[in-house]
Amino acid sequence: MDERKERAPRDGTRAPLVAAVSLTPVQEAYGRITAHALRCDDCRDVDQHCDVAEQLWLTYQALTDGAFRRLEG
Ligand SMILES: [Zn+2]
User: Fold this and answer.
1) Maximum CA pair distance of the chain?
2) For the whole model, what pTM was predicted?
3) Which positions ≥6 away from 47 have C-beta within 8 Å?
4) What tens digit of pLDDT does each residue of 11-55 get?
5) Phi-psi category of 49—alpha, beta or left, where left has phi over 0 and alpha has psi -120 to 50?
6) Distance 57 CA to ligand 1 centre (A)
7) Which of 21, 30, 39, 62 has the most C-beta neighbours closer than 10 Å?
């Protein structure tokens, strides 16, 4: 009976889970794309074009290409 149990706050809320790791630049770039797309009306409309999303995607691709070039040596 030594197990410790975290108690949920009485109001039913829970503390947010915080990652204790750092992401790679490629992962951070992809995260910026998804974070933007979730709150952008143009990104959610298939008939619209979003310049911000396009720029984020180009940045992501450039970082990915650079990572692959480093792996290839
Ligand atoms: Zn957008």
Assistant:
1) 59
2) 0.67
3) none
4) 667 766 666 789 999 999 999 999 999 999 999 999 999 999 999
5) beta
6) 11
7) 30
**DSSP E strands, 1-73:** none
Note the residue count of the chain: 73
Helices vs strands, H then E, count in the chain: 3, 0
Determine the distance separating the centroid of ligand 1 and the alpha carbon of 28, expressed in angstroms.
17
For residue 51, the CA-to-ligand 1 centroid distance in Å is 7
Residue 17 Cα to ligand 1 midpoint, Å, equals: 27
User: Token pair of 2, please?
Assistant: 């030594």
Burial class (CB in 10 A: 0-12, 13-18, 19+), 56: buried
CA 71 to ligand 1 center in whole angstroms = 31
